[in-house]
């Protein structure tokens, strides 16, 4: 009798200790925007013939929508093929390799497409020394590679960001010695951002920091490259999202690999599947088919309906793993018509998230909840036990490509259940010593 009771208690104690280690690494991250650089120079394992994409791994032949269009467009932009037909053939035979971003310390917004010459933000976690990467945002246009569109205009904007904007921003970051992101995120939450679908305050704070540095660098007059950077910062609404994504990736990777931990360290989607990773289960993906687009609710532009939408992938869900986005809905009342619908429901949405998380974030706080920390550290056991899935604020894309608005996405429960079953099947092993 005593023996039967002792084993579950011991397992629970070991699991609690593992989760405490993992979530401490997650919340203890101190991300700094170091620089901007071509992916081929900084992203681990990147090659001239690699195209990174968002989502769990999937064979090339299964891609068929906006993500496929973006990959083909990226191959043409990179000069890997002369036309779409040749690009398709090289992708089919593997000459051009399509690789999941997460396996290269990288995350990508929506389609997630990134090639060697494209500039990425480089974020370093000062606590762990880990670096993570996300491709630079293309700017304000709804037609972009991110949203599953490829044409000459998209190529021109990519070149402008690569050849003019990114070197200018890298120069500013070198002058500043990097930009600490935690203080900006903390202030932006207090100003109505969720840091996933809304980052207007964070963008304004970043722009002020960068433009102050531009004035320091300008001397007798503002250089043309700095004028281009200022124009980009006015229009690149989603730039800060890409910084937060890289910051969250660095933090979540630091919390990965803790034996026995039930902490979610990644969530993403490709065109067809939702996927997640769990700290105690390493790099294994747990996947399930995406729910119909008809289940998405939110605010769409120009009179479009969910009939016009399609999934194109996405890894901005990494923000929810650190307690931002839909997890912090109560901080972002301006998003109510994109998300839960009313101020009361936004608060209720976040309050539900505390039931499936391991800790309140010590830095990221919500004014509407008396500055309670955001719910942080999604626990697959709690998700499986309650049936409550993480709330995700997600960008909406059109079937033929393009930005359509923002929606509330509720991922399928099954991957959380399968991971929970596997973790519950055996007591956790001791975690290796940190290296």
Shape assignment: globular
Cα gyration radius (Å): 21 Å
Helix content: 25-40%
CATH topology of the largest domain: Enterococcus faecalis V583 fold
Name the CATH class of the largest domain: Alpha Beta
Overall pLDDT confidence: 94
Strand order across the biggest sheet?
4-6-5-1-7
**Beta-strand residue fraction:** 15-25%
Low-confidence stretches: 1-7, 428-435
The structural class is alpha+beta
Indicate how many domains the architecture comprises.
Answer: 2
CATH level 4 superfamily of the largest domain? Enterococcus faecalis V583 domain
Helix/strand order: HEHEHHEEEEHEHHHHEEEEHHEEHEEH
How far the N terminus sits from the C terminus, by CA atoms, comes to: 40 Å
CATH architecture of the largest domain: Alpha-Beta Complex
How many DSSP E strands?
15
The biggest sheet, with number of strands, parallel, antiparallel or mixed sense and barrel status, is: 5 strands, mixed
**How many helices does DSSP assign?**
13
């Amino acid at each position: 009798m005593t023996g039967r009771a002792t084993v579950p208690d011991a397992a629970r104690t070991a699991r609690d200790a593992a989760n405490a280690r993992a979530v401490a690494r997650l919340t203890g991250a101190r991300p700094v925007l170091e620089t901007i650089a071509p992916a081929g120079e900084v992203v681990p394992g990147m090659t001239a013939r690699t195209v990174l994409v968002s989502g769990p791994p999937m064979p090339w032949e299964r891609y068929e929508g906006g993500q496929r269009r973006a990959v083909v467009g990226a191959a043409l932009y990179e000069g890997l093929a002369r036309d779409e037909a040749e690009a398709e053939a090289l992708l089919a035979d593997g000459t051009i390799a399509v690789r999941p971003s997460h396996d290269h310390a990288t995350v990508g917004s929506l389609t997630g497409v990134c090639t060697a010459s494209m500039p990425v933000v480089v974020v370093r976690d000062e606590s762990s020394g880990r670096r993570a990467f996300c491709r630079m945002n293309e700017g304000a246009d709804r037609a972009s590679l991110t949203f599953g569109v490829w044409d000459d205009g998209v190529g021109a904007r990519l070149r402008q960001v690569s050849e003019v904007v990114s070197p200018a921003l890298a120069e500013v970051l070198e002058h500043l010695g990097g930009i600490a992101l935690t203080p900006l995120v903390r202030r932006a939450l207090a100003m109505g951002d969720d840091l996933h679908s809304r980052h207007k305050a964070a963008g304004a704070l970043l722009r002020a920091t960068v433009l102050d540095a531009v004035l320091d660098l300008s001397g007798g007059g503002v250089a043309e490259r700095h004028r281009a950077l200022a124009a980009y910062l006015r229009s690149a609404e989603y730039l800060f999202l890409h910084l937060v994504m890289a910051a969250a990736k660095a933090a979540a990777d630091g919390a990965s690999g803790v034996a026995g931990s039930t902490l979610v360290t990644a969530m993403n989607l490709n065109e067809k599947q939702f996927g997640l990773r769990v700290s105690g289960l390493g790099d294994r993906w747990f996947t399930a088919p995406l729910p119909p687009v008809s289940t998405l609710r939110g605010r769409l532009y120009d009179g479009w309906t969910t009939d016009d939408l399609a999934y194109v992938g996405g890894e901005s869900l990494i923000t929810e793993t650190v307690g931002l986005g839909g997890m912090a809905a109560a901080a972002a009342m301006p998003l109510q018509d994109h998300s839960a619908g009313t101020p009361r429901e936004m608060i209720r949405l976040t309050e539900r998230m505390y039931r499936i998380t391991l800790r309140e974030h010590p830095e990221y706080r919500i004014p509407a909840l008396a500055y309670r920390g955001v719910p942080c550290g999604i626990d697959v056991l709690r998700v499986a036990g309650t049936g409550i899935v993480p709330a995700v604020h997600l960008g909406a894309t059109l079937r033929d490509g393009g930005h359509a608005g923002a929606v509330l996405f509720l991922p399928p429960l099954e991957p959380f259940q399968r991971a929970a079953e596997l973790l519950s099947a055996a007591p956790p092993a001791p975690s290796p010593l940190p290296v």
